[in-house]
Specification:
Immunoglobulin-like; TIM Barrel; 32 strands; Jelly Rolls; binds beta-D-glucopyranuronic acid; 614 residues; 6-stranded antiparallel sheet; single chain; alpha+beta
Length: 614
């Protein structure tokens, strides 16, 4: 799905800001049709943000069910005759969207965009009442999954098997935008190199939608970063060559633009006509980078050169705003990544805001892009206090879960396929992968990801309990991605034992599959300010020592292709006896102050740059 933009034929209005906000504590809003009238509430809520930590009210924070957002929107008066679209970049987890009393969109899945064509519901120059009912419920039919219990008094509680707080709300921007009725609906760009590698091939495919779309001629122009036209073609699909191409590289995010123009079929008026050229009916500009990604043996290659990932599994997580997108926080996080020498990160454990992906493209940051399929693992039942004994089956991960999982893979790839920063699709984090049923569940999902995007490696993140002797699915994927906690959850406080166990396991994976290994998580909870002379878990010294121990091992194992520390920063989790005010495995605190480990990582990552990172 394209990110909306303004341009010569399109306009865009931000609907971010304050909304009236009501908590549907008794679950009656849909039945009582709260969309039909102004919400009876004194509360207001900011968009974008999670609502949970904004109010000084525990009942709102832990509410399970729907909350309602409402505001008035004026349609710009110049939009008569245009197609008018309402677009949500993310509503976590479920949304019903009403324009006045009419239901115009429903969406499940908290981290991918959706939109509604509301042309027939609104009038240019007039206002409408926008109401959004947002559900934070996680069930067997959602990704991530969860379960809801209700006690005799009707009090509902939510449990889930993932280790981050279930923030909810309208987390990313809401926009109203216009396009002509016949419009560019989708653009796909795939790049490669020709001959000696100095010429790029840019394969493009455009979908034009709207009545009579097929009679409109389409042309594309490729502009370089300075805006100079370097190639062009006609038709809804084709190939453009760029001679003397500047590659997108890790650390150097050179971007081209593909300007897609749908021309008036009768040479009629429109943007561009005044300049003497053919009339442009609709125009959409898609940025792209020219680079290749390939797995060869145990090497992960970007532009044919071995790439070694350094960086973190991250979270969209901040005080007050929770998982809400904020430009200032985003730039700060990227600035810290640069300071520490990270060349990459994983969008653990859900797709991040589109602004984050665009920033990574521009700055040459490499991304492992993950779906929200986290917590598909009954082995965590003890940890999270939930009851399922078996993962795959009617009780837990069932056909409905699989359908939701397919949807999140489709929506992630549809959204992010044109980002050069994305080099791996991670279709799940730590699912149970040794139980009967795992292979039958994952084989079609891996195939789906490959079919939707044959150009990028596909992986999933393997959990510590399912090592090379037990795992039954890793051979279905292109890379081996491992989360390991030797020295933390096992061999706690004994780094010598941890070192031996870690090395033995990595060598077993190397021997079993001969594919690149990326350590997607390793780390230790650490209380900032706690120091110790001894190997004391939770101390800043222990965190730094543990990471350095892993690095010694990584440097001895040829198949290692990357290291992502868990986590970039401390983050909020659900309550539990294993967590003190959240997960403390950050190299930075939640408010982004460096722990001792951050300096140790910086030393390693700024000294060890490989040729492709330089
Ligand atoms: C892994 C999960 C991650 C957790 C981490 C931890 O992938 O989400 O936060 O362990 O325990 O199981 O810190």
């Amino acid at each position: 799905m394209l990110k909306p933009q303004d341009g010569p034929t399109r306009e865009l209005v931000s609907l971010d800001g304050l909304y009236a906000f009501a908590v549907d504590s008794s679950g009656v809003g849909v039945r009582e049709r709260w969309q039909d009238a102004p919400l009876a509430t004194p509360l207001e809520m900011a968009v974008p943000a999670s609502y949970n930590d904004v109010f000084a009210d525990p009942a709102i924070r832990s509410h399970v069910g729907r909350v309602w957002y409402q505001r008035e929107v004026r349609v710009p008066r110049g939009w008569a005759g245009e197609r008018i679209v309402l677009r949500f970049a993310s509503v976590t987890h479920g949304a019903k969207v009403f324009v006045d009393s009419a239901l115009v969109a429903e969406h499940q899945g908290g981290y991918t965009p959706f939109e509604a064509d509301i042309t027939s519901h609104v009038t240019a120059g007039e206002t409408f009442r926008l109401t959004v009912a947002v559900s934070n419920e996680l069930t067997q039919s959602t990704i991530p999954p969860g379960s809801i219990a209700e006690d005799a008094a009707g009090r509902r509680t939510q449990t889930y098997m993932h280790d981050f707080y279930n923030y909810a709300g309208i987390h990313r921007s809401v926009v109203l935008y216009s396009t002509p009725a016949v419009h560019v609906e989708d653009v796909t760009v795939v790049t490669g190199f020709d001959g000696d590698g100095t010429t790029a091939t840019v394969d493009y495919a455009v979908v034009v939608a709207g009545e009579g779309a097929d009679i409109h001629p389409v042309r594309v122009r490729v502009l370089d970063a300075e805006g100079t036209q370097v190639g062009a073609a006609e038709g809804i699909s084709g190939t453009v060559a760029i001679p003397d191409v500047v590659r997108w590289q890790p650390g150097r995010g050179y971007l081209y633009r593909l300007v897609v123009e749908v021309l008036a079929h009768d040479g009629g008026s429109g943007a561009g006509a005044a300049a003497g050229g053919p009339a442009v009916h609709d125009s959409y500009t898609q940025t792209f980078g020219v680079r290749t990604v390939e797995v060869r043996g145990t090497d992960f290659l970007i532009n044919g050169e071995p790439f070694y990932f350094t960086g973190f599994g991250m979270h969209e997580d901040h005080g007050t705003i929770g998982k809400g997108h904020s430009g200032a926080h985003m730039v700060n996080d990227f600035s810290l990544l640069e300071w520490i020498g990270a060349n990459s990160f994983r969008t653990s454990h859900y797709p991040y805001a589109e602004e984050v992906m665009d920033y990574a493209d521009r700055h040459g940051i490499v991304v492992i892009d993950e779906t929200p399929a986290v917590g598909l693992n009954a082995d965590f039942a003890g940890f999270f206090g939930t009851g399922a004994k078996k993962t795959y089956g009617p009780e837990f991960v069932n056909g409905e879960t699989a359908a939701a999982h397919r949807q999140v893979i489709e929506e992630l790839i549809a959204r992010d396929k044109n980002h050069p920063s994305v080099v791996v699709w991670s279709i799940a984090n730590e699912p149970q992968s040794s139980e009967e049923g795992a292979r039958a569940y994952f084989e079609p999902l891996a195939a789906l990801a490959r079919e939707l995007d044959p150009t990028r490696p596909v992986g999933f993140v393997n959990v510590m309990f399912d090592g090379p002797d037990k795992d039954t699915i890793t051979d279905l994927f292109d890379v081996i991605m491992l989360n390991r906690y030797y020295g933390w959850y096992v061999n706690t406080g004994d780094l010598a034992a941890a070192e031996a166990a870690l090395e033995a396991e990595l060598r077993a994976w190397e021997a079993k599959l001969g594919k690149p290994i990326i350590m997607t998580e390793y780390g230790a909870d650490t209380l900032a300010g706690f120091h110790s002379l001894y190997e004391a878990p939770w101390s800043e010294e222990y965190q730094a020592d543990l990471l350095q121990m892993y690095h010694r091992v990584f440097d001895r194992v040829d198949a290692m292709a990357g290291e992502h520390v868990w986590n970039f920063a401390d983050f909020a989790t659900s309550n539990g006896i294993m967590r003190v005010d959240g997960n403390k495995k950050g190299a930075f605190t939640r408010d982004r102050r460096p722990k001792a480990a951050a300096f140790a990582l910086r030393r390693r990552w700024t000294q060890n740059k490989t040729a492709s990172q330089a």
